């Protein structure tokens, strides 16, 4: 009986569905059409299972069928299996149970790039540069970084056995590491980029994001912050409530943050800041790019529409669809689109997806010369556009590595490997750029490692600049933590530099805005 059930699981599943559903559904033509569709699905799945050269497993067929159905709705409705749903919950919760190490895919395998201070990995002696060879007795060769993450994470207090190769050691090293709770903070970087300018990077929006942001702003103010650059680049979004929480800290009282319209277009849900709130009057510039989506666009759109600050970078992704996550049992979930959201000026920034998923998921990186969407007005009557993401007030492309330097980094992992050797032999000073002597040692290291390059590639001025920056970035990461490396790169980032230049204009915009709308219900705050 069990073997028969295993063999005919497809037919049982597909046939049972309409039998269960029929008493709950309507009758007549609609029900007959539904039954015909289910019969077709059952027939196709049976033929695939019987005739395909490599028939899919039950899990594969179920997953693909569900995803195929959901993709007829929109690009963002999504079914999550056990691993995907667990990862989502960990991201939203702001912590997970693991070993406390940052890892990265390198040509030689998955490598530890930095260690969480005080975490299990540091306590047991793991180091940056260690390459995973085995995890719990199973080979890690050929695994992606995400697959390694899944194996390293687990329940609190459980032990994971890892074997690593450490540069300079003839034999592999083995460690038994007890998993512990590791914070996965949304506020990834928070530091003073100038004596009066704070810099905060928010990498996603989870349950703790609003509180983290509030603490970061307060900490920077204690260091002398008078103005802020908020970096939302490569932030794919997350929880709507987290975006609302940040907007409540940035906007004035009783201002619209976002509105939502669902299946019934006449029903509009509007979210505002508290009527008794107070505007914190520091000049603000928000950084965005094509990787900024969803909740990132809610924050940047509200800032732009209310003239709270300026937006710098490139067009955002253009995701104006709201998903609600519906649990399936205890371990799986369904992210289902239930509404569209609109910025305070009325913009729907959802990018068109009628031409198919490939066109939508692989957008043209070239910025349009003229906006194509409908025009709207900000509070101060500045013109903004909908229909294609948030368009920045100042469009600035991100700097790109030369082909030679990108090859050294991506194909050979050269900068990370060299930095391991350079740090041990010569040491590192905070925020010190790699000088000519370091580049000369790097050139000799490339020759010793038999990594090919031409004289023209080496002498190229742009490549010399990029190599210096990449070496310095890796050295700062290893010696002082990932924030130190990022702080160095910010000083050479064209978008960050434009944001710094735009802060005086953001201050003037804020003054004009506060003449229009007081910071509180009473007297205006002083700038």
β-strand amount: 15-25%
- Fold-level CATH name of the largest domain: 2-enoyl-CoA Hydratase, Chain A, domain 1
What gap, in angstroms, lies between the N and C termini? Answer: 78 Å
Show unreliable segments.
Answer: 1-25, 521-527
Largest beta sheet: what is the strand line-up? 10-11-12-15-16-21
Portion in helices: 40-55%
Biggest sheet overview: 6 strands, mixed
Query: Rounded to an integer, what's the Rg over CA atoms?
Result: 26 Å
The class by helix and strand makeup works out as: alpha+beta
- By CATH reckoning, the class of the largest domain would read Alpha Beta
Number of strands: 21
| Arithmetic mean of pLDDT | 87
* Coarse morphology: globular
Structural domain count: 4
CATH superfamily of the largest domain: 2-enoyl-CoA Hydratase, Chain A, domain 1
């Amino acid at each position: 009986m069990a073997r028969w059930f295993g063999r005919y699981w497809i037919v049982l599943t597909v046939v049972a569905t309409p039998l269960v559903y029929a008493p709950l559904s309507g009758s007549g033509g609609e029900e007959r059409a539904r039954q015909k569709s289910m019969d077709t699905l059952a027939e196709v799945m049976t033929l695939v299972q019987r005739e395909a050269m490599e028939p899919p497993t039950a899990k594969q067929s179920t997953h693909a069928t569900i995803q195929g159905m959901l993709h007829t709705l929109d690009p963002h409705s999504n079914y999550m299996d056990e691993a995907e749903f667990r990862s989502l919950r960990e991201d939203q919760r702001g912590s997970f149970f693991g070993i406390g190490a940052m890892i990265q895919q390198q040509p030689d395998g998955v490598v530890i790039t930095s260690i969480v201070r005080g975490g299990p990995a540091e306590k047991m002696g793991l180091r940056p540069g260690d390459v995973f060879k085995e995890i719990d007795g199973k080979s890690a060769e050929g695994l992606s970084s995400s697959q390694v993450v899944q194996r390293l994470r687990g329940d609190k207090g459980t032990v994971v056995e890892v074997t690593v190769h450490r540069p300079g050691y003839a034999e592999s090293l083995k460690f038994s590491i007890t998993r512990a709770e590791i914070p996965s903070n949304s506020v990834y970087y928070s530091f003073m980029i100038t004596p009066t300018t704070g810099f905060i990077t928010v990498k996603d929006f989870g349950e703790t994001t609003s509180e983290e942001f509030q603490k970061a702003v307060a900490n920077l103010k204690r260091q002398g912050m008078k103005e802020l650059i908020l970096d939302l680049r490569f932030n794919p979004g997350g929880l709507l409530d987290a975006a609302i929480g940040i907007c409540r800290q940035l906007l004035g009282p009783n201002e619209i943050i976002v509105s939502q319209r669902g299946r019934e277009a006449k029903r509009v849900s509007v979210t505002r800041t508290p009527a008794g709130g107070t505007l914190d009057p520091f000049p603000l510039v928000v950084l965005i790019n094509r990787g900024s989506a969803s909740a990132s666009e809610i924050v940047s759109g509200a800032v732009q529409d209310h003239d709270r600050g300026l937006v710098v970078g490139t067009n955002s992704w253009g995701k104006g669809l709201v998903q609600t996550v519906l649990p399936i049992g205890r371990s799986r979930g369904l992210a289902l689109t239930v509404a569209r959201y609109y910025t305070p000026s009325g913009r729907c920034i959802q990018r068109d997806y009628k031409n198919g998923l490939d066109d939508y998921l692989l957008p043209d990186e070239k910025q349009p010369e003229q906006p194509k969407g409908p025009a709207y007005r900000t509070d101060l009557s500045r013109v903004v556009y909908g229909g294609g993401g948030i368009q920045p007030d100042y469009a600035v492309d991100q700097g790109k590595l030369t082909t030679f330097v990108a090859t050294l980094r991506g194909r050979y992992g050269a900068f990370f490997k060299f930095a391991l050797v350079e740090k041990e032999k010569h040491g590192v000073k905070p925020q010190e750029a790699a000088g000519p002597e370091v580049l000369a040692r790097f050139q000799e290291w490339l020759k010793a490692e038999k990594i090919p390059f031409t004289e023209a590639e080496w002498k190229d001025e742009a490549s010399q600049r990029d190599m210096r920056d990449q070496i310095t970035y890796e050295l700062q990461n290893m010696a002082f933590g990932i924030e130190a490396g990022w702080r160095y790169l910010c000083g050479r980032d064209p978008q960050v530099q434009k944001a710094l230049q735009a802060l005086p204009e953001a201050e003037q915009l804020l003054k004009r805005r506060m003449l229009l709308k007081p910071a509180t219900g009473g007297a205006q705050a002083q700038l």
